């Protein structure tokens, strides 16, 4: 692995473990046994490393999230969406747990984040329309934007909410899966009888991960 890639992966590991605000470039350099000068050859400051990590995250998220056109079975579509969002939420959990602070100090990164989230919201719109066409959701066009916004807000802010509600946030995979269950619960009141059956199957699958 190239030194630049080692720096990025070390930073991600440390940010997730100890929190981005608690880690300096010196910590990152020491973690992979290189000099601070060697790190600065690749990145001028920590913020550039954060941007690099976000580029990896956004590329992976968009690749995973774009629905495959042949996937017409609704449970597959929804599971694909939830797995994509929350698997990457776990992998890049430092970013979600401290999102407002990270974005507020970097306008360029904030702009990139907004662009990615707009694409994700568009894809989520397409998934919800597929559910309606398959008679799995009882939803009219007027109510669609509110539902999509609520789901998107839940996905993007779940870890921030968890961080705010506990004195010592311990982000675990169980916390991630609780977010998946919350999103399913948002959809259930809008589901048809057939849709509710599929959502409950998916719900049972998520719960079984921690049985």
UniProtKB/TrEMBL annotation:
DNA-binding region(s), chain positions? 24-43
| Pfam families in UniProt | TetR (PF13972), TetR_N (PF00440)
Extract the Gene3D superfamilies matched here. Tetracycline Repressor, domain 2 (1.10.357.10)
Q: Which residues form the HTH tetR-type domain?
A: 1-61
Record flagged with keyword DNA-binding: yes
Keywords tagged on the record: DNA-binding
The organism's superkingdom is given as: Bacteria
Give the GO molecular function terms.
DNA binding
Q: Which InterPro entries match?
A: Homeodomain-like_sf, HTH-type_Tx_Regulator, HTH_TetR, TetR
SUPFAM superfamilies according to UniProt: Homeodomain-like
For this entry, the protein name equals Transcriptional regulator, TetR family
């Amino acid at each position: 692995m190239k030194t630049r890639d080692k720096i990025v992966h070390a930073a991600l590991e440390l940010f997730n473990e100890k929190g981005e605000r608690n880690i300096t470039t010196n910590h990152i350099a020491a973690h992979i046994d290189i000099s601070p000068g060697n790190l600065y050859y690749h990145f001028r400051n920590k913020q550039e490393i954060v941007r690099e990590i976000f580029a990896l995250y956004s590329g992976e998220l968009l690749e995973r999230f774009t629905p495959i056109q042949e996937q017409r079975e609704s449970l597959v579509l929804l599971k694909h969406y939830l797995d994509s969002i929350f698997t990457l939420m776990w992998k890049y959990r430092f970013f979600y747990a401290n999102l407002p602070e990270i974005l507020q100090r970097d306008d360029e990164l904030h702009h990139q984040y907004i662009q990615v989230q707009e694409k994700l919201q568009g894809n989520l719109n397409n998934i919800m329309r597929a559910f309606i066409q398959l008679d799995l959701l009882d939803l009219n066009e007027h109510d669609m934007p509110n539902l999509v916004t609520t789901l998107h807000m839940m996905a993007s802010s779940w870890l921030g909410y968890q961080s705010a509600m506990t004195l010592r946030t311990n982000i675990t995979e169980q916390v991630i899966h609780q977010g998946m269950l919350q999103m399913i619960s948002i959809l259930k009141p809008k589901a048809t009888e057939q849709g509710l059956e599929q959502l409950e199957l998916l719900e049972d699958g998520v719960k079984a991960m921690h049985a």
